[in-house]
Every structure is written in structure tokens, then in C-alpha cells.
Write a structure and sequence with these properties.
210 residues, mainly alpha, 12 helices, 69% helix, 0% strand, elongated
Length: 210
């Protein structure tokens, strides 16, 4: 069914960005309709539903906006670095900057906004889980590229190294959401990168032992 038009003063892109911040700060279930309407410029409920269909669809669009803007900065840092090691480190440090933006919601929106939902919102929980499960793909692609370019040894276990750094990245998002300081999070990255060489060597031995 076609949606009716919205008032001329209604800027859909600006409203979506505002909704993203509400969901990021309060989570899907914590964000009330009143919270969203106020943040989106004082629009009416019919305007929201005409433009986005439902709260769930608005949330999914907000997650996609987060992925294509905020989260994409870390992926770009990973892909554009001169080496896989530098890329992983840059990804983690860039992610921390997005998790700790002054004046903005803390932590990772994908990690916290719908981790567990009440009955009736299983679709939202499943959607965000599917996004989280795809998150390691960018790391795996970068490591495979390093393999093809000869930067990493052919015997490396890409999946094992990917799992380690993807878990570090997710943990950073959760800790940032709990209010842990930027400096403490950066220190975690120092430790994770110190493990790079031993992790790569350990994964090589594991591969050869199979």
C-alpha cells in the first residue's frame, strides 16, 4: 500500500539520523515512541509511520545508517592501511573513536541496541544478531588479501586470527558502552596488537597439525 505524503518541513534523512541516536543511546525497546517523535523534530506518529512504516522498520533503517556512516569508518581504516596488521590496529582504534564520540551515544549500536528483546520483538533481535555475525567478514577479507599479496604465510589460520580480533572489537564496544575511558580502551588495543605475532605463529602451528 502506498504511503501518504509527509509535511514539507519533514526532513526524512535528518529524522532518521536523530532516530539512530535515540536507538543507539536507549536501545530498541528502551526508545519510546515519544522519545523518537521528539528527537525527530517533533513530528507526529502518522508522519513517522507514513515515512518508515513501523518502529521496527525505522530501527532497521537506523542500523543500516549506522553501518554505512559510523561503523564504515573502522572498515575503511582496515581496508586502506598498508598492511593487515596496521589495518587491524587502525580498525580497532578508529572504532574506539566512534564508541567514545563527545556528546554522542557511547559504545556500539549494533552490540547493545537489541542484544536481548522481549517476546514479540524476536525479529528485531534476530536482525541485529545477523548483522553482528557478519561483522568479522571485513577482517577475514583483509587477512585473505594479505595472504594473496604474500604478506602473511600461507599456513596461517585466517579464521582463528579473525575470531580473536573480532572478539576484541566487540568487547571494546561493550566496554565503551559501560563508560570505560578512551585511554583504557586504547590500552586494550596495545595488548591485542602485542599478541599479533604470537597469534599468527600459533595459528600456523595449528594449521600444520591438522
Amino acid at each position: 500500500m502506498a504511503r501518504r505524503g509527509r509535511p514539507p518541513s519533514f526532513d526524512r534523512d535528518e529524522a532518521l539520523a536523530a532516530a539512530m541516536n535515540v536507538f543507539w543511546a536507549k536501545g530498541y525497546e528502551g526508545a519510546t515512541l515519544e522519545d523518537l517523535l521528539e528527537a525527530m523534530g517533533g513530528i507526529t506518529a502518522p508522519s513517522l509511520y507514513n515515512a518508515f512504516g513501523s518502529k521496527e522498520e525505522l530501527f532497521k533503517e537506523a542500523v543500516n545508517l549506522y553501518l554505512s556512516t559510523i561503523a564504515s569508518k573502522a572498515v575503511e581504516a582496515l581496508e586502506n592501511a598498508p598492511s593487515a596488521r596496521a589495518g587491524v590496529e587502525s580498525m580497532l582504534r578508529t572504532a574506539i573513536e566512534t564508541f567514545c564520540r563527545p556528546g554522542g551515544p557511547r559504545g556500539c549500536m549494533v552490540a547493545s541496541s537489541a542484544a536481548k528483546c522481549a517476546r514479540g520483538n524476536e525479529g528485531v533481535e534476530a536482525y541485529v544478531r545477523s548483522v553482528r555475525l557478519k561483522a568479522p567478514d571485513a577482517i577475514k577479507r583483509r587477512l585473505k588479501r594479505a595472504l594473496e599479496e604474500g604478506e602473511l604465510p600461507a599456513s596461517i589460520d585466517v579464521s582463528r586470527v579473525t575470531a580473536f580480533f573480532a572478539t576484541v572489537a566487540q568487547g571494546l564496544g561493550a566496554r565503551a558502552g559501560d563508560g570505560v575511558s578512551r585511554s583504557e580502551l586504547m590500552a586494550v588495543v596495545d595488548g591485542a596488537m602485542a599478541a599479533w605475532d604470537s597469534l599468527v605463529k600459533a595459528s600456523q602451528k595449528r594449521q600444520r597439525g591438522r
